[in-house]
Amino acid sequence: MPQFADAAFAGIAMTPQGDLSDRDPADVYWEVVQEALADAGLTLADVDGLIGDAPPGVGIRSALPGGAMADLVGHPLRFQASTSIGAAGQSAGIGLAALAIAHGLASVVVIPTVAAGGGSGYLGADRNAAVAHMARLGSPYEYVWGTTRVADYAVIARRHMYEYGTTEEQLAEIAVAQRYGATLNPLSVNGKRGEITIDDVMASRPIAEPLKLLDCCLVNQGAGCIVMTSATDAAAQGRHHPVLLLGWGEGQSYLDPCKAPSLASFEGGRLAADTAFGLAGVGRDEIDVAGISDHFTIGVIVELEAAGFCATGEGGSFVEGQATRIGGRLPVNTDGGFLSNSHAGSCGVFTVIELVRQLRHEAGPRQVEQASLAYAHGVGGVSQVQYGAVLGRA
Amino acid sequence: MAAYEKFVPEIPPLHEPFWAALRQHRVELQQCRRCGQFRFVPSELCPCGSPEYSWAPIAGTGEVYTYTIVHRAPTPAYQQDAPYVIAHVTMDEGPRMISNVVGCDPSDVFIGMPVEIVFDDVTPELTLYRFRPRS
Fold it and tell me: Which alpha helices (H) appear in chain A, and where do they start and end?
């Protein structure tokens, strides 16, 4: 098997998800980073690489995160990088981290995401403020009309239904399958609300037709962190069965919906997946479990198609009969996903964390039997920029 | 006129002719001087590679490419209008444009519906374009 990079997921951690508005974001940051390092058998003294941001602070900390991190851990870092894939930005950073490790630029890279504290906007706990903030992220030729992130995906759903005959019930299958996973995930936001049915999704109130409340992701806070090292170092720690990054790729396409050739399928996703699977030397039919960005149910369908798990237009029938539920043909977002687990900060981090748990065989009641290969697919914005990654149990 | 409490567009210099034409109840888009293609939203390059363009009028007619009916609006000012339609419309000249569809019940909108642009002077400085059904 061709090796993309000598890099492994050495440590993972996540806090309980929900409302962390009474917590200092910096405290939560260090808590989750140190917990992930401990999971890898490491400490802050070992960190020499960072994906994304240092904890919030004064001055130009946010512009020079590597330097800020050096101030705080008391030694210089050798590597810092950020990606621009929106809510999947931090998780897409696993590729850069792996390349840095494989080429000797860093040996221990932390990839945190934190949404906590009393601020408003995307990282805050105030739903109305978050919705208004997200609405303004599009261009003036979108937000003046009263678009929302839900509406942005609703027009994709409507076009997909028109072109391919996808149904609202097929969208609902995704929400039902993922809620089941969340009920088995004590850290999830929605697990305690219990299972739901297709009828429950169909009866939930319309938000932006055809999407209804239960087609939509959570608005919540929380934190998570991934630690990457070389596969050799991870194996030497011997704390968990090593999980490797076998392939990774990006696809960056069409920011403006008016410029996208189609709003029913997305070239960026295909590019990302083809690169990732090609580098990994793995076929789609070998994947045991997947984590697919699910800001809205329709997202899972168009990304499964883009990633090549089914033909374009066949995503609706692919997910029928609870095919993406744990125990189904291709379990997807077994932790509950953004719909039912967590949609906090750069929430793709949680997608990768769950796949690492699955490949370690540490997913408890959610465990996909004998899982050895996993696929992560993340999107930023409204499906314009995407990444794909193939993970393998060593 | 009551204060306009909805989102007001940022208008960088490149975009100003589009909004100036709207104030005169005309729709003008960039047309590439090399390949003749119309483009929207305003941008500095045609995909053919040419930065040379003219602002040229379009007919203002097109067909609904996709749409949604919004029930949960981004702010209270928009919520007053809910449920309202946001449609992506393929204009006869090629580009897609987004706006509300007004002048009909939201449930009457469908993909392929013929629509035309109407103008809405929401403030003395700002004119918006919306769509209405075209028979």
Answer: 25-39, 65-73, 89-102, 127-135, 140-143, 149-164, 168-183, 198-203, 231-237, 267-280, 297-306, 315-318, 337-340, 348-360
Q: What is the mean pLDDT of residues A109-115?
A: 96
Residue B10 and residue B16 in contact, taking contact as beta carbons nearer than 8 Å: no
Do B69 and B93 have their domain in common? yes
- Residues B76 and B123 placed together within one structural domain of the fold: yes
Residue B97: strand, helix, or coil? strand
Total domain count, chain A: 2
> Which residues in chain B are closer than 8 Å to A155, comparing Cβ atoms?
66-68, 86, 88
Q: Do A270 and A306 have their domain in common? A: yes
Contacts of B17 (CB under 8 A, 6+ apart): B28, B55
- The answer to whether residue A131 sits within a structural domain is no
- pLDDT band, residue B1 (cuts 50/70/90): low
| Distance between CA atoms of residues A36 and A18, nearest Å | 19
Q: Is A199 on the interface with B (CB under 8 A)?
A: no
Interface check for A137 against chain B (CB to CB < 8 A): the answer is no
B22, B41: one domain: yes
Q: Is residue B5 part of a domain?
A: no
* Confidence at A1, pLDDT banded by 50, 70, 90: very low
Same domain, A185 and A233: no
Domain boundary among B24, B40, B57: B57
Nearest CA-CA distance, residue B5 and chain A, Å: 11
Identity of the residue in A139, A146, A259 whose CB atom sits nearest the CB atom of B86: A146
Q: Do A38 and A183 share a structural domain?
A: no
Q: Tell me: pLDDT of A62 over 90.
A: no
Q: Is B8 on the interface with A (CB under 8 A)?
A: yes
CB A102 within 8 A of CB A79: no
Its domain, for residue A155, covers 143-216+251-393
Instruction: Give the CA dihedral B22, B24, B25, B31, nearest 10 degrees.
Output: -50
Q: Assign A55 a pLDDT band (cuts: 50, 70, 90).
A: confident
For residue B17, is it within any domain? yes
Place of tokens 């204009």: B91
Give pLDDT tens digits for A244-296. 999 999 999 888 999 999 999 999 999 999 999 999 999 999 999 999 999 99
**Segments forming the whole domain that contains residue B132:** 59-135
Give the closest of A139, A209, A258 to B68, CB-based.
Answer: A209
A228 & A204 share domain = no
Same domain, A74 and A165: no
Beta-bridged to residue A113, according to DSSP, are A224
Whether residues B47 and B19 share a domain: the answer is: yes
pLDDT class of A3 with cuts at 50, 70, 90: confident
